[in-house]
Amino acid sequence: MGLTVERPATRERLAGLDGLRGLAALFVVLHHCWLLSFPGFPVNDAPGWTGWLLYGHFAVVVFIVLSGFSLAVSPARSGWRLGGIPTFFNRRAWRILPPYWAALLFSLVIAWTVIPQPGQQTPTGQSALIYGLLLQDVFGSPSPNGALWSIAVEAQLYLVFPLMLLVLRKMGAAVMLGIVTLIVVAVGALAPSVPAVDLLMRLTPQFAALFAMGAVCAGIVRAQERTSRLAWHWFAAAAAVPVLLLIVVAGPVWVVANFFWVDLAVGPAAGLLLTGVATGKPVWLVRLLDTGPLRRLGSFSYSLYLIHSPLVVMVNRLVVAPHVPPGMPAFLLTLALAVPVSVGAAWLFASLFELPFQRHRSWKGLRDAVRARLVR
Asked: Contact at 8 Å (CB) between 298 and 19?
């Protein structure tokens, strides 16, 4: 997903994006530590100053916008042409599936032998099949990992991405974004009264509009490579303020019940911030996001997202809960233990199942690299 690093082959790396991925993935880890320590979700029964950790869902919003942006950067520089649909799908499968399937196996083993996910029954063979085929948002089944739902949404967006680019190339960015958003809004408006349309809500359709917004932002960045650069971060701030006020005034129960509409409202702010960072503004933020530790964290953020949930559950339920009172003491100890465990395990996991597939684009290249290392 947006956590995966997609760098244009013929251009330099866009500073700040890896750091943004890393922080978003880390925020999801903190969110799950919070959820396990204060189980009243969506009611906030934690101290008020921790309330922002309730909204880990919005990190996924950022990932989806980032994904649309990352995939569209190269087409935006070549007339919005994808360079071959089979090639695109092969590259996406090569990048996404090996770590995903490894994380799925890891999660199933933990759920079967140690502890299942909170609120879930022990996964079945059907769960393994459904999740293995990335159909978990279509067919219900006990989940082995609370974070894997969004990977299915991401895969479905890849299927429509070539069509988005075709519309964008023929009709322009505004028309493409308008068409996608109109369809999504129609689904959201009709879902409460039309059961057949309501079934589409399982697919998180608002993410299609966010994904399209990311692609449009890639076109904006491309245009600004040839013109004066606007201060897009200020536009992002202007778009974010009313959404933040809505979230504060409406409260978490209403926000969670209306994620569909709130996600659509958050999307423009996320896209504009991404555009600002990709064009180098604000300078202080880009420099912060491009520091070594954040860049390194971003390089394996996909792995962190994939495997952290079973690890956080094990730490909280098996180590913290039996010895520490619930609430803030449990939260602080879960943070102290689960965050470094998750980050360290994700780095090791990425070294085995993610980074090799970034460096080598075929089985032959991967086999040759393994043989060369064994010889050394």
From this structure: yes
Assess contact for 52 and 13: CB atoms under 8 A: no
One-letter amino acid for residue 301 of the chain: S
The one-letter amino acid at 100: Y
Residue 327's φ and ψ, nearest 5 degrees, are 100, -140
What's the CA angle centered on 285, arms 219 and 56, to 5 degrees? 80
Q: Is 285 exposed, middle or buried (0-12, 13-18, 19+ CB in 10 A)?
A: middle
Calculate the alpha carbon distances from 258 to 146, 206, 247, 249, 262 in Å: 20, 11, 11, 14, 6
pTM of the model: 0.91
Cβ distance 32 to 56 under 8 Å? yes
Q: What is the pLDDT of residues 115-166, one digit of tens each?
A: 999 989 999 999 999 999 999 999 889 999 999 999 999 999 999 999 999 9
Name the residue among 72, 128, 117 with its Cα closest to residue 271: 72
Cis amide linkage into residue 99, ω under 30° from 0:
no
CA 44 from chain center: how many Å? 24
> What are the strands, taking DSSP E only, across 206-324?
none
Neighbours of 124 (CB within 10 A): 14
Q: pLDDT tens-digit profile of 340-352?
A: 999 999 999 999 9
